[in-house]
């Protein structure tokens, strides 16, 4: 098991000898038990890397060792605590609130799904906590890096690896 370390205070992410700048949520970092839907906080803790979602035509699929798939036009992620599929991938449209994985910016060209609040999900304690591409501004609670850094790091990641987020 390899560990991606995120130092929220320093805005730094490290993986072995590799170091890069990263951004976190607009609400800063918070204890995972205090994480709430929509608070903009990045949850502190150790989260398994569940898999990778790639936007067709926007990200290469070569040399990825984690489970991965292409994002489809109707892919979304449930962020509605009343939805039985809360904090799970879903198909759009949906009767409950959900985030589209096809965005107008490039942030979701590469998504590494983190295992926060997913075993099992607890309604309202945060959904769609991802490791994705930076857009030069704080995230809604995710960890983000520049495209070149993500593309350098992605082939090094393996099943069983984790992201360790610290204040």
TrEMBL record:
Any single GO BP term: regulation of cell shape
Name of one Pfam family that matches: YkuD
Pathway membership: Cell wall biogenesis; peptidoglycan biosynthesis
CDD domains xref list: YkuD_like (cd16913)
InterPro entries: LD_TPept_cat_dom
Translocase in keyword set: no
Keyword presence, Transit peptide: no
Domain L,D-TPase catalytic per the UniProt entry, residue ranges: 1-166
UniProtKB keywords: Cell shape, Cell wall biogenesis/degradation, Peptidoglycan synthesis
Active site, per annotation: 132, 142
GO molecular function, one term: transferase activity
Protein name per Swiss-Prot or TrEMBL: L,D-TPase catalytic domain-containing protein
Origin species: Sphingobium lactosutens DS20
């Amino acid at each position: 098991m390899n560990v991606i370390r995120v130092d929220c205070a320093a805005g730094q992410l490290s993986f072995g000898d590799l170091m890069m700048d990263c951004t976190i949520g607009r609400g800063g970092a918070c204890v995972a038990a205090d994480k709430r839907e929509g608070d903009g906080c990045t949850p502190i803790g150790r989260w398994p890397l569940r898999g990778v979602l790639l936007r067709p035509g926007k990200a290469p699929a070569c040399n990825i060792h984690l489970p991965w798939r292409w994002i489809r036009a109707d892919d979304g992620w449930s962020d509605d605590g009343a939805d039985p599929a809360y904090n799970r991938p879903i198909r759009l449209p949906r009767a409950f609130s959900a985030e589209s994985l096809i965005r107008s910016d490039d942030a979701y060209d590469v998504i590494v799904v983190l295992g926060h609040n997913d075993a099992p999900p607890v309604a309202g304690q945060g959904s769609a906590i991802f490791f994705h591409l930076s857009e030069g501004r704080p995230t809604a609670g995710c960890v983000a890096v520049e495209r070149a850094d993500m593309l350098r790091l992605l082939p090094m990641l393996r099943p069983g690896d984790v992201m360790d987020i610290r204040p």
